[in-house]
Each structure stands twice: as structure tokens, then as C-alpha cells.
Known about the structure:
Helices cover 56% and strands 13% of the residues.
Amino acid sequence: MAGYFITFEGPEGAGKTTILGILQDELSKKGYDVVSTREPGGIDIAEQIRSVILDKKNTKMDSRTEALLYAASRRQHLVEKVIPALEAGKIVLCDRFIDSSLAYQGYGRNLGIDEVLSINEFAINGLMPSLTLFFDIDPEKGLTRIGKNDEREVNRLDLENISFHQKVYKGYLLVAERFKNRFQKINADNPLELVTKEALEIIESHIRK
Length: 209
Ligand SMILES: Nc1ncnc2c1ncn2[C@@H]1O[C@H](COP(=O)(O)OP(=O)(O)OP(=O)(O)O)[C@@H](O)[C@H]1O
Ligand SMILES: Cc1cn([C@H]2C[C@H](O)[C@@H](COP(=O)(O)O)O2)c(=O)[nH]c1=O
């Protein structure tokens, strides 16, 4: 496909959404055709699935149901938004993708990274990102950041205890090692300007290759 599929990953509060917004503007100013989006969500059907997954009331949700809902929203989002943008030669910046499922459901929920990869292979049908930026931060620090942000609504996953989030972080490190050809780690504990600059440099060097 003609465009570039670039995903942003990391624990809660790492800065993914903030940095993605800044980079969308920076890259657009430089003349690149950029589409920014998120998972779960980005299009109507996937946003509806997001509401079900993240609703604090849905405490009975089974882990396999959760993994399947993320994969279903992913499929629809790819078909409706990501694939058409890539076919049109655009740069797609996506806030979370398959690696979130591998870290949160595969490792965090104990479903197994390989099992979750396998249901996602059906959903993505071969479309993987060419670059994944991993915003690396201690999960406790990330959660403290989002706790200070009054505008952010707390969701069902945020409410999991710290040991779940630490497990997810460990899951990310395993996934980053497994897919090291596309993963680039960035220290997200640095000041925002520095993290953003590093992310922009990595993306531009990837695009120039
Ligand atoms: N490098 C940074 N230093 C300090 N604060 C930051 C930094 N990056 C982001 N923040 C702040 O941390 C909070 C969380 O940022 P953001 O929502 O972008 O994180 P996120 O990774 O998208 O989180 P989530 O995955 O939970 O949605 C925001 O209030 C943001 O302003
Ligand atoms: C794609 C995806 C996401 N999650 C989790 C990670 C977060 O806790 C929420 C999404 O909220 P955000 O504010 O947009 O970061 O969902 C997951 O567990 N599995 C996934 O595949």
C-alpha cells in the first residue's frame, strides 16, 4: 500500500494522544497528507463498540469478550478509515492498535499473547504498521498524570488496579522485543517538547527511507 501506517503505543497517560495531535499539525505544516485516528474508535461503529468496552458499568465483561470486541472494532476501523487512507498514499497516525490488545488482553488479562495475536490476525488480514512508537513510562507515573487531568473521563480499564497496569507494561516490553523491527522506544518521562521532537525525527526518518 502506498501510505505509511504508524501506531502509537504505551501505558495510560504516556502522552500518546497529546503528541499525536501535535505531530498531525507539524507534519501537515510540512506538506504531508496526514490522517489521525484512534482505537478503539475513529469511526462511528468502532466508537459505539468503544462505549460498550469502556463503560464503567460493564463490570461483568469476560476477558475473551473484551478481546473480541477490540478486534471487531479494529476490523471495521481498518476497512472504513485506515485502508482507504493508505491506498490514497496518506500517513496514518493511529493512537493504539494491535499491540494494545497483545499487552492488555494477551498479557494483562492472561489470555496469552499468541492467542490474542491469532484472533487479531483474522481481524487485520495482514495489515500491520510499518512503525510503532512506544511511549515508555512507568505506569504509576502515567496514571498520576491522567489523575491530574480533570477533562479526561475515567474509563473501565483505567479503574483496574496498579498491578494490572504494571503487568500490561511488562506485556508491552515482551511485545516490543518480539516486534523489534518496527518498534521504536521513546522515553515518555521527558518534557513534552523533547518527546515530541524525538517522535517527529523518528517518523520523518522512517518516511524518508
Ligand atoms: N511529557 C509529558 N510531560 C508531562 N505531562 C505530559 C507529557 N505528555 C503528556 N502529558 C500530560 O499527561 C496527560 C495524559 O496525556 P495523554 O492523554 O496524551 O496520554 P495518553 O497516552 O493518550 O493516555 P491514555 O492512553 O490513557 O488515553 C495529559 O494531561 C497531558 O497533558
Ligand atoms: C486498542 C486497545 C485499547 N485497550 C485499552 C487501553 C486503554 O485503557 C483503553 C483505551 O483508552 P484510551 O484513552 O484511548 O487510551 O483501552 C485495550 O485494552 N486493548 C486494545 O486493543
